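Q: Here's a chain of 431 amino acids. Please give me its 3D structure as tokens.
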Amino acid sequence: MKPVKVGICGLGTVGSGTFNVLTRNAHEISRRVGCDIVIEQIGARRDNPNCDTTTTNITRDIFEVAVNPEVDIVVELIGGYEVALKLVLLAIENGKHVVTANKALIAVHGNEIFAAAKKHNVVVAFESAVAGGIPIIKALREGLAANKINGLAGIINGTGNFILSEMQEKGRDFSDVLTEAQALGYAEADPTFDVEGIDAAHKLTIMAAIAYGVPLQFDKAYTEGISNITAEDVKFASELGYRIKHLGIARRTEQGIELRVHPTMIPKQKLLANVNGVMNAVLVDADAVGQTLHYGAGAGDEATASAVIADILDIARTIDVDPSSKVAPLGFQSEQLSDLPILAMDQTETGYYLRLKAAEKPGVLADVTKILGDCGINIEAIVQKESDQDFVPVILLTQRVIEQKMNQAISEIEALDSILGAVTRIRVEHL
């Protein structure tokens, strides 16, 4: 079998990891595939001192890689939206297969990219776009193909998980841990994508599309970050037997699909509650196999490179096979994608942790519980904390309820003269 030639665009953290692993494990990879995988060209604006590229053709023009007639597979590792989209579409138009680690690109422009790939009879693979080295895309699309997926919940951003883990274990404040995460290189100078849930929402959008056979719909994903989580809430949650994790949750209901990213309290004994540091994990609930947990490194040069190269090998093994006979990008044939709606957040159902500051006087809790009862919300527990102030912290746990009802209740509770400030809300899931 003739060598399969690869063009790598981007020589940053993942690009250098991909180059190094492909080079270091070339013999083992060749034994697995039945042919050599050759790095034909690299497109990068600057060299990377972590790579010995002295014998490799390098260009500063990444688009040159996309039109190089010697390149079979273009590996897009530059990130971002506009330039990456232009590069990928140009590669597809020139008959190149594409491998990308760009979750933002796939979540936002994937429908357009997959349509172009089908038109030009090429493959677009993106295992490394979600959860780094964890093969969750292959698991959902192929390993669990016999199943009806009921739901999935994932810790899919290592930065956010590191911050919450430190707050849990050491009682630290969010801002303090964020500064350390930036110093360690876990968080960017602008951490918005990580701590506000945008990165996780990109990944959840991709997993949900594969799990339920629906088009990618990032604009319909509810996204809430962790910047408002306090050390006080982490402590109270622990006292109640829970831990706070930043979860991406997709769930199939009779009305449609829940698609949401937000801080979530989960029981301490659950496996996801014990995934700490920068690690990722995805819990999948399926009708035939039950629950499976997929755990591992969600980022890093060689961990992510492992998934990039797995996609390269998948393409290399079947490079001469008619693309129509291969696994579809989202696991379902494009003409078989469902129009199952994505539910608005106020139509989703979950339990709630509520923290409020109540005046230290008779009748306040009665007023609060009456509002909840009138809104059809059942209370599971009430805890009043001691305080030497005029207003005392009150913690309530509720049973599952439609969010629309909770929104109404919170609005009415905040309007009470006996309640100081806003009510803190954290959703509760028992998984």
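Q: Can you summarize the key feature?
A: Residues 216 and 409 are 33 Å apart (CA to CA).
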